[in-house]
Amino acid sequence: MDYANQKLAEEKVFKDPVHRYIHVRDQVIWDLINAREFQRMRRIKQLGTSYLVFHGAEHSRFSHSLGVYEIVRRILDDIFHGRPEWDESERLVVLCAALLHDLGHGPFSHSFEKVFNVDHEDFTREILQGDTEVNSILKKVAPDFPKKVAEVIGKTYANKQVVSLISSQIDADRMDYLQRDAYYTGVSYGHFDMERILRVMRPFEDQVVIKSSGMHAVEDYIMSRYQMYWQVYFHPVARSAEVILRKILQRAKYLSGHGYKFEQPPTHFLAFFDQSFTLKDYLALDEGVLMTYFQLWITERDPILSDLCDRFVNRRLFQYVDFDPGKDYKKLGELAQLFQKAGIDPEYYLIDDSTSDLPYDFYRPGEEEERLPIHLLMPTGDIKELSRLSQIVDGISGKRRTDYKLYFPAELLIDGKKKEIKQQIIELLREGGV
Amino acid sequence: MLQEHAKIVDFISTAEGVTGRKKLQKMIYILKKIGVPFQEKYEFHIYGPYSEELTARIEELCDMGFILEQKEDKSSYVQYRYTVTDEGLEFRNALGKPVLENSEHAIQLNGKSARFLELTATLLFFDDLEQVEQIAKLHSVKGKLNFTEEEIGEAFAFIEELKQ
């Protein structure tokens, strides 16, 4: 039997707190899970710095990836199988894409990507198509199979049904992370009736649609997503940790570029500081490596690097105030000058951060680059866009919510040094709504 | 702080206004691909290179009153025109340095149609491929738009022109 169709002698199962069991029958999937690049994801947390707020949130990208695979497997094997609108020959490519969609994520990837100007999607593509264990497994299916998997993940695959299963406004990725993140953070949001949604999903022309009888389950999913974003993903304290993390990396990069002699040389980072990195350099990093450096850098001579690392490792986070950039951008300049006068470097200790989310969006004629909407399949066989039928969804459709915060080290402002200047800073920050 | 916002304001000001969300998306993408330091992250959406971050930033700038979004009703669809307000110019002058080394690029891009910019942006998205594959990929993801050989040739020439 060819490798693409090879089944394991016995089904393997992974116990999973969200889906109860993850079922693996395909040899390809089993081999991919055991590849070193996939195992690396055990050492990368799904929610980055959120564990500093929700102490249970220590789960990894490894478990999320298995979850996405399992959801797609159920859709294909239990719902789509045998339906004329679904092309069975796409089964393996979509299962592999589901399993491998986050493969390029690095340690604390949000901050890492910003500081070093890299993109995890480029690394995903490179892992799939470069000299890796994952690539050698995928190539055994067919020489062009790694490219196909990369295209599905990159959303450039010709079959849009396949792409929709992995990335759309109601996809397996979101359905897994909402439930998994809710479980591990312990919050009571994020729950919805996934079984019901899966049962009413249908392949339809070049997309995946939902039978209209499942509309209320979809409403619940969209509201869950909305609440998870504002209660968990955008939590201001987790963002404070993220800001400090970003500044640590920025400081280390700056020092390295300015001839500073590290007591603990940043060996793993050097190729990123001068942008000469290879895939091998990237794959050598994980959150254990970064945390080790942060721990060691606490004793560095550079006071900024040392302080920031101590803040991150020991959770001495920055305080924050709301601010309105439209009105307050001049005040930010003023604050930066006062910080400088107070001997606190604003580059590292006065940071604005914004975050925003659009809970659901629909197609606007003439604006075709927008997100593909969720379509409901009516009993007549027609399809209708969700917000046309759901008042709840209509209420939040197309409405972006943005949150701006200004982060700073509160205790440095009341340490008794340079009192007058710091008093002015405090007053300016109070005007911003402390 | 807010420098990325200031870059967008600077670009729209240099382009003397931009009509169409799609056009704005593709213009920034094309400039980013030729090395202009825009930080917005792009992904291939169902219809082409698209940046959710840019959409969010434009909405924020409108909320801040630095960019004016005007709806133009084109009977079968709605089009949006973006211009910089006086407050926006003040903001740009306070925070930003000019983002474009060659301001002509903004005018050149603005003179092209949304269709042509979509074609150019899509070709650039696949610029890691050999030209033959690049064109095949274009037809595979944009089959419905039926781009002609002539249009594709013009797009490649335009990319070269911008890179010089």
From TrEMBL, chain A:
This is HD domain-containing protein. PROSITE patterns: HD (PS51831). InterPro entries: dGTPase-like (IPR050135), HD/PDEase_dom (IPR003607), HD_assoc_2 (IPR045509), HD_domain (IPR006674). One of its GO terms (biological process) is dGTP catabolic process. The lineage of its organism: Bacteria, Bacillati, Bacillota, Bacilli, Bacillales. GO terms for molecular function: dGTPase activity. It holds the Pfam family HD_assoc_2. SMART domains: HDc. Residues 61-178 form the HD domain.
Automatic annotation (TrEMBL), chain B:
It comes from the Bacteria. This is YwgA family protein. It comes from Planococcus halotolerans. The lineage of its organism: Bacteria, Bacillati, Bacillota, Bacilli, Bacillales.
